[in-house]
UniProtKB/TrEMBL annotation:
Protein source organism: Halorubrum californiense DSM 19288
Biased composition, class Low complexity, residue ranges: 14-34
Protein name: Amino acid-binding ACT domain protein
Location of the region described as Disordered in the Swiss-Prot/TrEMBL record: 1-42
CDD domains: ACT_ThrD-II-like (cd04886)
Residues annotated as signal peptide: none
Cited InterPro entries: ACT-like_dom_sf, ACT_dom, ACT_ThrD-II-like
Superkingdom of source: Archaea
Residue ranges annotated for the ACT domain, each copy included: 46-122
């Protein structure tokens, strides 16, 4: 397995190599008729994850891949770049059969790992909206986390404006990336959350350079 990070800690690389070895062992199926390999041909897949910047989070995210037969190829850990929620984007390449790939993605999400992109699954639609209200008092971090929990969309960018101070009404411009055909579902989730927190939603914005 190759790690594309420059200057990565040796301990982190050793941990990832250990998971890689486990994945190799898991990927063999001794009961299969071809002597230990699944009938379907493995192919390369990529998942883009969002992790909390805490020790052990990367290794914990790799376990569902290894435990479900994925053969790790490379990891791109973007420590210098954070998502709008202040988390670390991590791109993982691995080999797996199509069936096992679906199992791996399900396992990652079951473990609470935010899968921003899986394989050829891409956010093909984009919408920009405004939120108005007491965004800070109602916990903006929680608002963004709950929007991200909606599998239809991902928060690509956030711009907060609080000209009268954080205790007064503020606004936030959100750029959402939604899966093809699921923009309405994403907006519905935002509206429901806004109603709960007594926020106002202005959407969608067109002709805006987000």
């Amino acid at each position: 397995m190759s790690d594309r990070r420059d200057g990565a800690p040796e301990a982190a690389i050793d941990a990832e190599n250990a998971v890689d070895s486990a994945a190799d062992a898991e990927s063999a199926d001794p009961a299969s008729p071809d002597g230990g390999h699944a009938a379907a041909t493995p192919s390369t897949h990529t998942v883009r994850l969002e992790l909390v910047d805490e020790p052990g989070q990367l290794l914990a995210a790799l376990h569902p891949i290894a435990d479900n037969g994925g053969n790790l190829l490379s990891i791109y850990h973007e420590r210098g770049n954070k998502t709008p929620r202040g988390r670390i984007p991590v791109e993982v390449d691995f080999e797996a059969t199509p069936e096992r790939f679906e199992e791996i993605v399900d396992a990652l999400r079951s473990e609470g790992v935010n899968v921003m992109q899986a394989g050829t699954e891409r956010y093909a639609e984009e919408v920009t909206l405004l939120l108005f209200g007491h965004l800070i008092d109602t916990d903006l971090s929680d608002t963004l986390s709950r929007i991200e929990a909606c599998e239809s969309a991902s928060v690509a960018d956030v711009s907060l404006a609080a000209p009268q101070g954080t205790e007064e009404v503020s606004s936030a411009r959100l750029r959402l990336e939604a899966r093809a055909g699921e923009t309405d579902a994403a907006l519905a989730a935002v509206r429901e959350l806004a109603d709960e927190k007594e926020l106002r939603v202005v959407e969608p914005l067109t002709g805006v350079d987000a």
